[in-house]
Design brief:
Blueprint lengths: L1 E5 L7 E9 L5 H15 L12 H15 L3 E9 L10 H7 L8 H18 L6 E5 L8 H18 L7 E5 L8 H25 L9 E3 L6 H10 L6 E9 L8 E8 L4 E3 L2
Parallel strand pairs: 1-4, 3-7, 4-5
Antiparallel strand pairs: 1-2, 2-3, 6-9, 7-8, 8-9
Amino acid sequence: MVSDFSGTHAGSAFTSYAFLSLDIDQNAIWLAVQREFRRSVLRRRRMAYKSLNDRARRLALPRFLQLADQLNGALTIVVIPRGFGPLLDDVGQDAEEALHLWKPNVHEHLLRVTHLGGMFAASMSREGQDVMIITDQDEVASNASQLTQLTELFSRVLGNSLTHNLGHIRVGTTQSDDGTLALEDLAAVADLAAGAICEILSAMEKCGYRPGKGIISLMPQVASPKAQLIGHWLASNQASLQRAIVLLEKPDGAGGYKAGLVELQSITRNIWIP
């Protein structure tokens, strides 16, 4: 499982967390095509949402998204509004002590990554599988000590979520790449998805509306061309890579929160929540 996130910068109305889950043994075709793509198109450039102002990356984006379509796996994006508050009401004293390596302003972000990621890893794995969780090297895993502790946090979450036994559990960063940039490209799929959906929903917020149940909303034209292109790609339901966008909200007066699916329609470029 490869994860990335977007929207932690000031001015974003949402924060998005993308998790790409796949069995690497079932993706030999993607690995072969990815090597050819790297050799002939992108070479050593890293694909990233914030780097798409670079002409070479921008021109390579449509082919990169076509490459991602050949993945056999599931891409899940969880979107949380700014001001949502803690995802977990009470993490307990043990969890607070486990977070001592990170700055306090990173704690909530870290708990979201580990609990959402652990939940998806638990639900999409099967008995006896080895699980590797890859995250970008940022404030969540910026050094070896944090990476070791991050492995412990994921192990705790998985231990509370699993209904079956796993083999080995490892947590790494994109620096674990073997030179083919395959891990970089898998992380880029999550990065592009998280960045685009965060921008699209934030643009809707700035235009004065949010996705609503049973309502078809036009995709805001103030969203950048790259966000609209990736949004169109996210709307596809014809590829082997399955997509799901989950929006978490806290209704006024409610004690908890609710989750709903956001559905993008590529033909009309609308946003629809069934």
